[in-house]
Amino acid sequence: MSQFKRLLVMLGPQMRHSPALQRAAALAESSGALLDLNVFVDDVDTFGLMGDSRERERLLAHNRLWLADEAEQLRSTGLDVSTELLLTRDPLGSVLQQAERLGCDLLVKDVQHEPVLKRLLVTPLDWQLLKDSPVAVHLVSEIRLPLPRQIAAAVDLNHHGNAEQLDDQVIRSAHALALQCNAELHLLHVCDAARTHIADFGAGTVTMPGFDAGVRTAQRAAFNRLGDHHQVDLERRHFLEGLAIKAIAGYISHSRVDVIVMGTHRHDALHTFLGGTTSHVLEHPLCNVLAIKAVR
C-alpha cells in the first residue's frame, strides 16, 4: 500500500516529458494514486516582455493541447489523471493553494538549477517549496529508471527539538517508498564533529583531547541502534564523516542512490537537514530529494 494517494505534478510551460513527470507517472502506476498534472504559466509582465496578449494566448493554447494529449496517453495506460493550466503571478502561492484544494499528499517537481548570482538576489522556488509546502515534496533532477531502485534515508543524530521523531518519519517514509518500488533501503548519516560542538556549545573553539573521537563513537552507536531498530542491513548503512555538503556529494557521485529522503521543518527548511545542506544537496545534478514534513 502506497503512502501517497494523490500526486500533484508542477510543470512549467516549456516542460514536456521531464524527469518529474516520468517519476510521478511511474509512482502513480505502481500505487494506483491519482495523478494531477498542472502547468503553471508565470504571468509577470517584466518591462513589457510578456505584454503581447496574442503570444500569451498562443502559449496557453499550446499548453492546453499538450496537457489534453498527455492525459489521454496516460489514461490509456490505466492511470487516473486530471489536468489544469494556471496563469498566475504567484507560482508559489498557486501551487500551495492547488495542493490544499486537491487534497494532494505529494508534490512532484523538476529541480530548477539557478545561477549563483540569481540565488543571492531571489530565493529559488524549490527552496520556498521545501519551506512552505504543507505536504511532502519530491524534487527530481535526473532519473536512471522511472521507479527508484536505491533509496537512502538521511538522518540527523544531533537531535535538536523533535529531530528524533523526524528521523523516524524519514525512515518510515523511505521504507514505504522502497516497498512500493521494490527498491533497496539504505540509511545515511554524516558525522560532523565540529558542527555538533558548535550546535551544543556555541561558536567557541574546542581543544579538549578526544572530543571528536567521543562524538564519532556516540553517533556511530546511535546510528547502529537506529539501523537495528528499523532492520536495515549492515551493508546498507552509510556512516560518513566530515563536512555534510562534501560527504553527501561524494556519496551521491559514487553510489547508485536514486532518491535521498530527508526531513524538513516548515518554519526553517534550510537549516534542518544535516546542518543546513538542503539547498546544496539540491544543486547536485544527480540528486533527487524526497522531503518529508515534520509532524507538528
Give an overview in words.
By secondary structure, the chain is an alpha/beta fold. It has two domains: 6-140, 3-Layer(aba) Sandwich (Rossmann fold), CATH 3.40.50; 150-293, Rossmann fold. It has helices at residues 19-31, 53-75, 91-102, 116-121, 125-132, 163-181, 193-201, 211-229, 244-254, 278-282, and strands at residues 6-11, 34-42, 81-88, 106-110, 136-140, 150-154, 184-191, 237-241, 259-264, 289-293. A ten-stranded mixed sheet has the order 3-2-1-4-5-10-9-6-7-8, sandwiched between helices. Strand 6, helix 6 (163-181) and strand 7 (184-191) form a beta-alpha-beta unit.
Topology:
Blueprint: E1 6-11, H1 19-31, E2 34-42, H2 53-75, E3 81-88, H3 91-102, E4 106-110, H4 116-121, H5 125-132, E5 136-140, E6 150-154, H6 163-181, E7 184-191, H7 193-201, H8 211-229, E8 237-241, H9 244-254, E9 259-264, H10 278-282, E10 289-293
Parallel strand pairs: 1-2, 1-4, 2-3, 4-5, 6-7, 6-9, 7-8, 9-10
Antiparallel strand pairs: 5-10
